């Protein structure tokens, strides 16, 4: 930890040339275009979050959920607060709400139908067409700005052949090894709740469309909240701010666990249903605030310690360790829940317990 503190206080030698105040002059269209690309990147992430809810609604085992969670691993080289969160909102909340036949029959269709407005296959086909069209438009209308010979001469070219050897040297640094080890393992403290809480809520009786609606208040928080905490995350010690938030996240996880554990009892009582939904929304909001704050804090810290010559590559490397550590933990805890979960099957002859992964086949044969 001491080395990490030294790393935080260490100063990176900066170029002494005058730096103009950053602005979007001449780049507003490019910035909007970049946000669009991040939105497109976020849509499959949102779908990958929605599919476990659909699987849980169909009674699959947690072992199968663990196998599916591996699909999220490729999204461990990526980070963006606005575009990706908007895309995840579309791929997760919008899809789940309009995929629900109960929601659509209640609020959209004039006559009841057997399926919702969206289907998984139709939703995927729609976005496949969108991706194809945007790719074609990029190829036709988007071109790189031609650099002058002077700009090319002044810019150091760090291509693949030079960037990766530099990354190898970075990884060998003892403070970097300690930092990567910490961020790879620290999310394991929260991975069990992140992975299982939503699935347990569905299992215990919360309809998937209502669960998606519960997530709506947290969507603007995920997008906008980092803007309001900038003054706390851009100081000299952003990592210290991260560690101050850590106990708050632990307490929030404990409270969410309590609510999830008591879901069935609270939903069974008409007097407590309202309190349950209000409580879980508040907890989800608070959890998202803390999560966004910690992400902003460690992102600020990473940008401070990154070598300016390979800044983007440096930060991507560190972010990859953090996100991959979380995904590995999620997969492990889903697998573990399957192994330690037992259910009772009853028949006219007897009652016996079976492991969760064998529940469907065994109980069906009673």
From TrEMBL:
Membrane spanning stretches: 31-55, 117-141, 176-199, 211-229, 241-261, 273-295
Any one GO BP annotation for this protein: acetyl-CoA transmembrane transport
Cellular compartments annotated: Membrane
Record keyword Disulfide bond present: no
A GO-annotated cellular component: membrane
Keywords of the record: Membrane, Transmembrane, Transmembrane helix
Topological category with respect to the lipid bilayer: Multi-pass membrane protein
One of the Pfam families matching this protein, by short name: Acatn
SUPFAM superfamilies linked to this entry: MFS general substrate transporter (SSF103473)
Main localization, broad class: membrane
One annotated GO molecular function: acetyl-CoA transmembrane transporter activity
The UniProt record lists the keyword Transmembrane helix: yes
PANTHER family from the UniProt entry: ACETYL-COENZYME A TRANSPORTER 1, SOLUTE CARRIER FAMILY 33 ACETYL-COA TRANSPORTER -RELATED
Name of protein: Acetyl-coenzyme A transporter 1
High-level lineage: Eukaryota, Metazoa, Ecdysozoa, Arthropoda, Hexapoda
């Amino acid at each position: 930890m001491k080395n990490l503190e030294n790393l935080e206080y260490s100063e990176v030698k900066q170029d002494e040339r005058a730096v103009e105040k950053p602005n979007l002059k001449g780049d507003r269209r490019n910035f909007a275009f970049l946000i669009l690309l991040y939105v497109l990147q976020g849509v499959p992430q949102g779908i990958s979050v929605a599919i476990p809810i659909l699987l849980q609604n169909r009674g699959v085992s947690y072992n199968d959920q663990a196998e599916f969670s591996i699909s999220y691993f490729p999204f461990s080289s990526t980070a963006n607060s606005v575009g990706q969160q908007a895309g995840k909102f579309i791929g997760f909340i919008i899809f789940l709400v309009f995929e629900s036949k109960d929601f659509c029959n209640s609020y959209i269709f004039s006559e009841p139908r057997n399926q919702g407005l969206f289907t998984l296959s139709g939703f995927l086909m729609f976005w496949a067409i969108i991706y194809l069209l945007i790719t074609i438009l990029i190829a036709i209308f988007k071109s790189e700005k031609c650099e002058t010979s002077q700009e090319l001469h002044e810019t150091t070219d760090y291509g693949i052949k030079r960037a990766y050897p530099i990354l190898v040297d970075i990884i060998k640094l003892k403070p970097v090894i300690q930092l990567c080890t910490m961020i790879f393992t620290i999310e394991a403290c929260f991975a069990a709740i992140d992975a299982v809480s939503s699935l347990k809520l569905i299992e215990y009786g919360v309809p998937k469309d209502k669960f998606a609606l519960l997530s709506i208040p947290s969507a603007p928080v995920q997008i906008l909240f980092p803007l309001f905490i900038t003054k706390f995350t851009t100081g000299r010690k952003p990592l210290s701010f991260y560690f101050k938030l850590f106990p708050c996240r632990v307490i929030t996880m404990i409270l969410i666990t309590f609510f999830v554990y008591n879901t069935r009892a609270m939903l069974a009582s008409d007097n407590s249903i309202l309190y349950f939904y209000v409580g879980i929304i508040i907890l989800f909001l608070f959890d998202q605030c803390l999560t966004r704050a910690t992400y902003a804090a460690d992102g600020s810290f990473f940008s401070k310690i990154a070598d300016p010559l390979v800044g983007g590559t440096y930060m991507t490397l560190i972010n990859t360790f953090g996100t991959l550590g979380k995904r590995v933990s999620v997969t492990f805890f889903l697998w573990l829940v399957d192994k330690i979960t037992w259910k009772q099957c009853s028949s006219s002859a007897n009652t016996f317990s079976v492991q969760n992964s064998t529940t469907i086949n065994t109980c069906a044969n009673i």
